[in-house]
Amino acid sequence: MGTFDILFYHFFNHFKLKKNKKANSIATFYVSFLQCSLLLLLGVFFAKFFRKMHMDTMSADKAWTLFVLVVIFIFFKNWMYYGGRKRKVLNAKMIKNKKLTYNIYMLWFLPVVILALTLVLLQAV
């Protein structure tokens, strides 16, 4: 079981008590948003690195188009992956760890920090 599966499970259990019908959607959105923000951070890092190394690998328009296509793929993949059966399997595996070990506000703050780091890296020369 991976890191994103554990984060999905914690989000799902947290919001299952408060918003029963939307818990799966919220948890899926969070995991997708976190994966997309990490992808953006890596993309900006490698774009700056390749620019400093004077390598012309891809134009900016093509890179943004590729990023949008990958984001759509990530959202669709997570929607299918965490649909019904996978969530039940996660529930069975994590049933012994009922206690949430992560602070939910810190988990929401994580993608914001990643996006802020991406903006700082994007502004760097």
UniProtKB/TrEMBL annotation:
Keywords recorded for this protein, A-Z: Membrane, Transmembrane, Transmembrane helix
Protein name (Swiss-Prot/TrEMBL): DUF4271 domain-containing protein
Species this chain originates from: Algibacter lectus
Keyword Transmembrane listed: yes
Membrane-spanning segments: 26-51, 63-81, 102-122
